[in-house]
Design a protein that fits this description.
Helix content is 34%, strand content 25%. With 189 residues, the protein is an alpha/beta fold. The protein is globular. Bound molecules: inosine 5'-triphosphate. Inosine 5'-triphosphate (ITT) is lined by residues 7-9, 12, 64-67, 81-82, 85, 139-143, 154, 166, 168. Inosine 5'-triphosphate (ITT) binds at residues 7-9, 12, 64-67, 81-82, 85, 139-143, 154, 166, 168.
């Protein structure tokens, strides 16, 4: 089975490749542009993106819209995570969070997958905290400032460990379960 991973983010591609290879699902990176509408819901962005890609004749693919939701900032940067990462970046977030006591945050990942003519949309979450300073060189985006265990940042752990606990790994597990239910695939999520 082959699944196109449609994204501009090579970090996501590698996480999906590592997740799905042990299940015997081959992932292929595809760069097909689609509109990411402005919405307060990740799932709406994903569903609109899937519709556009299907209209273009693309099939057997997944797309992913993710975001970091910081509780003290009322969910900011949330659906604006890509823009905020490109503009103020992790240093900007650390500045805003300077002196803030409640450092809890949630990463969310909504995956939309079109496979065998069927659409599956799932959302995975991972709770954690915003660290006081950037740490680590692995991963991408907000990984250096987010910790799921309060000790190490996502940029300090190997991909397989991140996949085992992350929003994307949780969503990929939900997707795999749905795929197995639908197509009786062998293996475990
Ligand atoms: P595509 O939309 O092309 O897939 P993107 O990087 O813009 O790529 P998102 O909109 O889903 O992806 O991501 C919003 C931001 O959140 C962006 O800056 C990402 O780098 C960041 N992000 C997403 N998942 C992340 C993760 O697992 N770890 C750290 N940062 C992440």
């Amino acid at each position: 089975m082959k699944l196109g991973v449609i994204t501009s983010n090579p970090g996501k591609v590698e996480e999906y490749r590592r997740y799905f290879e042990r299940l015997g699902v081959e992932t292929v990176h595809m760069r097909i542009p689609y509109d990411e509408i402005q919405s307060s819901e990740l799932e709406e962005v994903v569903r609109k993106g899937m519709d556009e890609l299907k209209r273009k004749g693309v099939s057997d693919f997944l797309i992913d819209d993710s975001g970091l939701f910081i509780n003290d900032l009322k969910g900011f940067p949330g659906v604006w995570s890509a823009y905020v990462q490109k503009t103020i970046g992790n240093d900007g977030i650390l500045k805003i969070m300077d002196g803030v006591e409640d450092r809890s945050a949630v990463f969310k990942c909504c995956i939309g997958c079109n496979i065998g003519g069927r659409d599956i949309v799932v959302t995975g979450v991972c709770g954690g905290t915003i660290l006081e300073r950037s740490r680590g060189t692995e991963g991408f985006g907000y990984d250096p400032i987010f910790s799921h265990d309060g000790v190490r940042s996502f940029a300090e752990i190997p991909i397989d460990e991140k996949n085992a606990v992350s929003h994307r790994g949780v969503a990929a597990g939900m997707l795999t379960e749905e795929m197995m239910k639908t197509f009786c695939l062998e293996g475990k999520p």
